[in-house]
Amino acid sequence: MTWTGWLLALLQTTLFVACAPLLAIWIKRNKCFWQNRRAPRYVQPYRDLIKLFRKQVVLAENASPLFRMAPYIVFAATIVAAATVPLVATELPTTAIADMLVLIGFLALARFFLALAGMDIGTAFGGMGASREVSLASLAEPALLMVVFTIAMSVQSTNLSNAMTHLLESGLVLRPSLLFALLGLLLVAVAETGRVPVDNPATHLELTMLHEAMILEYSGRHLALMEWAAQLKLMIFGVLIANIFFPWGIATEFTAAALATGLAAVAVKLALLGAILAIAETALAKMRLFQVPQFLNLAFLLALLGALTHIILEAGT
Amino acid sequence: MALNLAFAAVMASLLSAAVSLGAHRRIVVLRALAFPLLGLAGATAAVAGLITLSSGAVFTDTLPIGLPWLHWQVRLDPLSALFLIIIGIVTFAVALFGPGYLREYEHGDHPLVQLGVFTGLFITGMLLVVLADDAFMFMIAWEVMSLSSYFLVVFHHEQAANRRAGFLYLLMAHVGGLMILLGYGVLATFGDGFAFASMRVAELSPLWASVAFALGFIGFGMKAGLVPLHAWLPEAHPVAPSHISALMSGVMLKVAVYGFIRMSLDLIGDVHWGWGVTALLVGSVSALLGVLYALQQNDLKRLLAYSSIENIGVIFIGLGLAMVFMGSGHPKLGVMALVAALFHAFNHALFKSLLFLGAGAVIQRSHEQNLERMGGLLTRLPYTGVFFLIGVISISSLPPFNGFASEWLIFQAALQAGTLDNGVLRILIPFTAAMLALTGALVVVCFVKAYGIAFLGQPRSRRVRHARQVTWGMRSAQGLLAVACLLTGVLPTTVVNLILQIPTQLLGTGLPSVTAHGWLWLTPVSPEVASYSAPLVLLGLLLAWFLAWQLLHPRGPRSIRRGDPWDCGFGPLSSRMQYTGTAFAQPLRRIFAPVWKVEERIERQTEADGLRVIRLSHQQQIIDHSWAALYEPIGRWVMLVARRVTRLQQGNIRIYLAYSFFTLLLLLWLIS
After folding, report:
1. What mean pLDDT comes out for the span A205-225?
2. Is residue B619 located within the same domain as residue B527?
3. Which residues are B619's β-sheet partners?
């Protein structure tokens, strides 16, 4: 049991890491469809990664060792974060290592090194990107934690796997608190993964970038790791939304049929979420930097409302 | 045995103070005698604490000094033991760091005798505070600690600002000391005597218990630097020599926390949940404001001092939660929050001392305190850079370091708010937890700024460019604390198991569930509710890193080429083009604008035609609101009263005789 558990956890993490670029290209293709553009093929992000891994790294002369280590730390922290999120099956041993709070910690660790790497070369863009990224993330974090609190109070656990099974067992009950939490988490996810309207992943206009500004000095395999980590982070948030709020289909036992259902279910859920994100990104424009705090305040308020409705309406039931 | 070791530690630090008397212009006395003795004191104190904490025993003794009817009572229980360990470890690190650091003062007219004597007395005072078992000895030790640290604060007394900071410190320490004395007075009245043993059994009415709690909270809170009584802290801590700053921020604030815990949980006993709410709210405000102020500081040591206020706030959030749970009949959850708070206190002592020592190394080598003139120090001071990074990761509470483990426990305690019956508390506690999350995220911003500006990028001044390595002693002191940060972070179960002895002895309630599943797992309530395994997290991170390195890293001589950074196609970049610390903090300054009083002045000089700007200067000052809101009104009020009182002073002998006459008359009337 435990060995199959660990093996499955390893396989699931590998799947997670391998599929992250696929989700990114799915969203991109959907966006292309809505914007009447010709779409790249599904293998394109993999080709990009392979190309980057093969390329020679051009490193700034004054880059410190931290600059070269950072991509590996960011990538490793994001992988470990992904390993703790149930993708296909719950009850895997990796989810016990770290709960939702630790998951937030992993993402913060990755962001911390990303921001430091941005400041290492000493260009204005890096500093600007780092400053904006950590400032906005500091507003997103309380909202994210409030969402976690709402979920944790509903299911009386911060363990992701337990939360999902608990919600699965309680069946289709309308919980207003979770509805608010979902809305809050959607807004936070958009901000955390750097999508429109907070940041534009496709932009290369220096003054408007957040994420891209920090990794401007990276090239070759370092850039590949950073890009891959960003895609992975997007997938993590997608899976969180899909599997916490719509846990149906996820495998609760380790049989081939259950696992196949779980895989199919999560694929469909992610595809739907990606399609919605693509529509939203097409319909919305990027907002000004100093409007983002209001956006994140809204997310916090929604999550707070979720917690309050739980305490007022649902506690004790 | 343990108590004798503790006495040995006190003796060694006293001896260190005594030998420093011979250090006049002979720095070698300090280096070869005073600091090794301090190191000995630290090591024995830590060992004494460890023995007591691991056995969970209580040792008591009576010393043949003190008042005729009250000899000094000494007691070493698990609570004092934890704080002995804190004092011991940091003192030991400081003793390693000090000799190298003092090289800066070898030449010139620095009061080295004072430095040695008062450092020894300062540590003696702190050791005696945690050992004291009667209010009389406690207050004497407390005053020794406060007074000797005053002389350390004014070490650089040639600058007027430092003298002012020292005076403010002395004033606040004494107002706080007075409050504590009054609090003990209340307890002694009901408990019939100044010994802690009789205070413990005293039966207080709820009103008087609350009065004693309030006095203790204000007195100890003032020393710990809780908002709004904090204004002295960022003035006083940074101006002392850096190893003293480490002791003050890392240890002395913890001694105040110790006093608060001793008074409220041990001596007063019956905890009311309302006290917990007070501590929780004040703690939350301190944490949030502390980090917001820290964020806007450009002086490295001031930034660290403000961040101490934030961490004290976090500790008080934990203590407040503990009191709320204990006061509403959930002793197990109370113990969990208390353990989290104590764990955080321990962690803060480690990483804040580490950061202050790192700042000391930087300042000694670059003679710059201002972040805006630093940069690129990681390649110039690689050891300090790496150790400082460990401190920064720990204080930012990122997994798997120690700051994260303790904050995680506080969050877990807060998450159990649903079990409370009071609806307001059920809402309030998650909200304070969200504030704690905001604080934690802002700490990341603050320290990304501090580290990124100081240690990364390019040097912004000539002296920083030529900074060299510090001595091995200074490096090993930082290394010791950095390793301690990593170890306590990766093995939180071991530390938590030790800390659990404190509530077991103090309150009679343990929490076996937290480490019930072996050393790998931290499970505060039960493994179903939440679990965290720091060793496996570290293993996972290393494994992922190793795999990424092995599988994705191409081999070959031409895999890396060095080139210029991207300069948008205009000439080379200079260090002045980097983002500054002020600029880095600008987005948050705008978002949280009402928190600060910002005075900003922009001067723009243009050519005669008014088109081309030839000179542009920007001045900005961030002022703490507490000055205008609290300190200045009190200062004005005191001056006003003083002026009124001077009317009594006529300078005429007959009037003074009349005063004496009427006073005597009044006293006679009172007696009869």
Report:
1. 82
2. no
3. B601
